[in-house]
């Protein structure tokens, strides 16, 4: 009888210190590991269930405003300082880690319509319906120091409805009855643009092209301007009005607009006769949109009292946030590290949310990080299977929103059925197929 013995060198398996790990042998022969796929599927199913179980996105609320929060701005150089403006003209500077108001001042006599922080993070601008733009120092006020006063004030004949600072240069743009570009060292605008008769509600500089800016107007237009030639470049008219606009910081040729028809539209400025992607899910007008610094996601706040996070390549939202007390959302922002979402609503509160609902906020040790990465790879591998897809996509929403979404689906189905019947009983080609990406753009002008 032949006996096989196991021979091992003792020093290879002896711990020199107590913290040394024991050597473990593994045989990767597939024949010794049957049912690999079923076991992986079970792990993926458990991982997606745990993700939904630990999904608690709400971090905290900042209270102190006495009226609805209408504008927010983050500091590009700091994760601490954060600015908010309210409908009663109050401006507040916050310390986000401590969730504490640093200082506040009633700087305007009307709605604070826009806030913009300078690229160096030392000052910020606020604009209001009282026809003034004021510059403030973005710093922590000492306890015995007086209430901060404006460093500079810029006046106009019409109310201001929006403001944005240049990404690198010392200039800012405002909008109202027209788009105006300002130099802080001058009391009058250096450039003025007007294309149309209605008011302009938002304006934003392009993150890459230093002389390019875009605006949205109440006459349903989206317009591009070039400061170098001091003229308007291109303009499109949409079916309904756009309330806000945001450029993608990583793909500066693309921008997203928040529209009154409950959708968001991503355009390529090189080809604006059709939308690249239509982002759906909201059941009321979308009031604001803001991109993550990574350029892969953006957040939208709506009149339906929900916040939704979209992937830039996806038509459906990956997350929806809501609370029982939160009212209509007027402004949203991503934090500078893209880990948190900030929202300002009509109930006078600013809320802080996690960008990833189930992400752990405390420190993660290496072993835990490897486990989380393994779970993420499993969820990505099996995301198309029915049960995993159902669990990962399911979100609880208020009853009113669920009913409104159902009504929208029924209306869409009826419209599709009506058009199909028309085509079936008409001459071939008499009722053309319309693409929503092209239908939303009424006309383009240059």
UniProtKB/TrEMBL annotation:
Source taxon at top rank: Eukaryota
GO BP annotations, alphabetical order: maturation of SSU-rRNA from tricistronic rRNA transcript (SSU-rRNA, 5.8S rRNA, LSU-rRNA)
InterPro entries registered for this protein in UniProt: Sof1 (IPR007287), WD40/YVTN_repeat-like_dom_sf (IPR015943), WD40_PAC1 (IPR020472), WD40_repeat_dom_sf (IPR036322), WD40_rpt (IPR001680), WD_repeat_DCAF13/WDSOF1 (IPR051733)
Gene3D superfamilies, sorted: YVTN repeat-like/Quinoprotein amine dehydrogenase (2.130.10.10)
Biased amino acid composition, Basic and acidic residues: 407-418
Biased composition (Basic residues): 394-406
Compartments in which it is found: Nucleus, Nucleolus
Record region (Disordered): 394-434
WD repeats: 62-104, 105-146, 279-320, 322-363
UniProt GO cellular component terms: nucleolus; small-subunit processome
Domain (Sof1-like protein): residue spans on this chain: 355-441
Keyword annotations of the record: Nucleus, Repeat, Ribonucleoprotein, WD repeat
Family, as annotated: Belongs to the WD repeat DCAF13/WDSOF1 family.
Identification of the protein by name: Sof1-like protein domain-containing protein
């Amino acid at each position: 009888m032949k006996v096989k013995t196991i021979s091992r060198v003792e020093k290879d398996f002896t711990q020199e210190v107590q913290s040394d790990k024991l050597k473990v042998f593994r045989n990767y022969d597939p024949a010794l590991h049957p049912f690999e796929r079923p076991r992986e599927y079970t792990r993926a199913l458990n991982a997606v269930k745990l993700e939904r179980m630990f999904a608690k996105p709400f971090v905290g609320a900042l209270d102190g405003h006495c009226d609805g929060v209408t504008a927010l701005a983050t500091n590009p150089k700091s994760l601490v300082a954060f600015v908010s403006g309210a409908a009663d003209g109050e401006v507040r500077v916050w310390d986000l880690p401590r969730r504490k108001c640093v200082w506040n001042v009633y700087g305007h006599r009307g709605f604070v319509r826009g806030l913009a922080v300078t690229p160096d993070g030392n000052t910020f601008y606020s604009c209001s319906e009282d026809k003034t733009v004021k510059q403030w120092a973005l710093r922590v006020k000492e306890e015995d120091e007086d209430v901060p006063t404006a460093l500079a004030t810029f006046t106009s004949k019409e109310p201001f409805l929006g403001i944005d600072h240049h990404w690198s240069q010392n200039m800012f743009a405002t909008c109202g009855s027209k788009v105006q570009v300002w130099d802080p060292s001058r009391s009058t605008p250096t450039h003025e643009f007007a294309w149309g008769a209605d008011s302009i509600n938002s304006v934003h500089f392009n993150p890459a092209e230093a002389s390019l800016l875009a605006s949205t107007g109440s006459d349903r237009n989206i317009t591009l301007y070039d400061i170098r030639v001091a003229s308007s470049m291109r303009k499109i008219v949409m079916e309904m009005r756009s309330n806000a606009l945001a450029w993608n910081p990583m793909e500066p040729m693309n921008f997203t607009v928040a529209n009154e028809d409950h959708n968001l539209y991503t355009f390529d400025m090189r080809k604006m006769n059709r939308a690249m992607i239509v982002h759906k899910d909201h059941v009321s007008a979308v009031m604001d949109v803001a991109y993550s610094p990574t350029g892969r996601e953006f957040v939208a706040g709506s009149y339906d009292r929900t916040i939704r996070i979209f992937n830039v390549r996806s038509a459906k939202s990956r997350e929806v946030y809501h609370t029982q007390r939160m009212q209509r959302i007027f402004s949203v922002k991503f934090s500078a590290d893209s880990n948190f979402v900030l929202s300002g609503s009509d109930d006078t509160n600013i809320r802080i949310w996690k960008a990833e609902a189930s992400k752990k906020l405390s420190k993660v040790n290496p072993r835990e990080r490897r486990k989380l990465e393994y779970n993420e790879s499993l969820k990505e591998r099996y995301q198309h299977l029915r049960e995993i897809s159902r669990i990962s996509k399911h979100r609880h929403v208020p009853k009113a929103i669920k009913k409104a979404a159902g009504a929208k689906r029924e209306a869409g189905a009826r419209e599709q059925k009506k058009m199909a019947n028309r085509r079936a009983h008409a001459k071939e080609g008499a009722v053309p197929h319309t693409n929503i990406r092209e239908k939303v753009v009424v006309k383009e002008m240059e």
